[in-house]
Amino acid sequence: MAFPSTTISGSLYGSSSESMRSMWPDIFYKSSPVRKGIQGFGTDSFHGFGNLEGSALCASPFSISCDEWRKKKDPISLTSAVLWSSSEPSFISGDKLFEFHEVSDGIINKKEYMYIETSTSRGTSGGVPVYVMLPLDSVNSNSTLNRPRAMNASMRALKAAGVEGIMVDIWWGIVEMEGPELYNWGGYREIMALAREHGLKVQAVMSFHQCGGNVGDCCWIPLPQWVRKEIDANPDLVYTDKDGRRNYEYLSLGCDTLPVLNGRTPVLAYTDFMRNFRDEFSDYLGDVIVEIQVGLGPAGELRYPAYPEMNNTWQFPGIGEFQCYDKYMLANLQACARQVGQVDWGKGGPHDAGHYKQFPYDTGFFHKDGSWNTPYGEFFLEWYSGNLLQHGERILSAAESIFRGTGAKLSGKVAGIHWHYGSSSHPAELTAGYYNTRMRDGYLPIACMFGRHGVTLNFTCFEMRDEEQCPFSARCSPEGLLRQVTLAARNANVPLAGENALMRFDEVCAADG
């Protein structure tokens, strides 16, 4: 097939029944493809869902509303937790799906829930809609369609194969290349016209990041030239690590609200781009273009660029590094530290957090009894993750207002950082901005934020199995991570879509699908 990767889209649970939504814990709904035989959490691998009071100091007002929601959903105790059983789900209507153990005041209650087939988001054939991602270089740098004859033939083949539609990156670095607010949508209009001709739906990705430097990047599409000139004049516009290395994939969230782009803020530049897209493609929205995936960071994901592969800076399964050393983020950190009366906490990130390629046990911050679980560690991680939540809130709020009433739904992508998931500190998730540890759920606040704006949570690594991951010492668990994110999305009443992280054509993956 001409297109290299697939994205599976569709709600993993139903939301049409008010009575079902009011239950706690409510019924888990299936929409295939669902991998049979996934093992659940055992008590020895428990990742708590009780500590939901984590509002980022001086940064994030959002977890208050999540906390209020949690109290409403579970009036028994804020410290109650939900664990998945290790029994194998059967996925047959009426059979036991899994067990919940509610832990409250030392009392463990065993509950069983039945799998019930319900209506979900369905494709034109009645199943879960499947979208195929177009090549990243489908549109040339001059905004003309690349390989138009091959594109036409490929779309015809996709339609014949029963595919619901395509996903296409709309690159900021191509469309607004010539100058601020000078947009050229030429090649993308050709793609939309071809999709309509062949009866395919389109998921349009607002790609505000650089292409090149991430897994699967097969071409080089930098940020717009005029943006790069601003960065050259002020390198602190991009994320920076503790050694002063700059990352040019995406603008730092530290300058989100500052007029650093020819008099506009980055958030305003993203907003203007999306508004112009809406106006340009108004005749396709809701009909051909059925979804807008809003870019929120490197690779389009809501995260920090903590694991850059360019120049061999990071290698799997390294823990990555915190990206908070541009002058704007440091100024914010210093202000927050002063507010809590701990001036020394504002000098930078943890001094003992190690380097990109290290393992958690090699560091003072991330090892089992490390300083991640101290008042300082909690302060820093709340601040770091809270700023990321605020960043997502700003952009999704703008997107919601722009695309309201167009008939196109919104989605945002969260990275599937599955390595070191089995460790206590979850270091790779922490450096990426997800405050998720063995004692804290970092995905529910994200799901709540998405839910406030009616945004589908698009999650990667759906195709991965725990048993396939190596080295063993990295304690990878893509299946455990997916279960946790699924639970967070369900509890926040947010639709969950899936996207494969890597290309796979093997028989094992095909059997699972």
UniProtKB/TrEMBL annotation:
Keyword Cell membrane: no
Keyword annotations from UniProtKB, A to Z: Carbohydrate metabolism, Glycosidase, Hydrolase, Polysaccharide degradation
Presence of the UniProt keyword Calcium in the record: no
Residue numbers annotated as active site: 301 (proton donor), 499 (proton acceptor)
PROSITE patterns in alphabetical order: BETA_AMYLASE_1
GO biological process assignments: polysaccharide catabolic process
EC assignment: 3.2.1.2
Reactions the enzyme catalyzes: Hydrolysis of (1->4)-alpha-D-glucosidic linkages in polysaccharides so as to remove successive maltose units from the non-reducing ends of the chains
Taxonomy, superkingdom: Eukaryota
GO molecular function, one term: beta-amylase activity
Family (UniProt): Belongs to the glycosyl hydrolase 14 family.
PANTHER family: BETA-AMYLASE 1, CHLOROPLASTIC
Protein name as catalogued: Beta-amylase
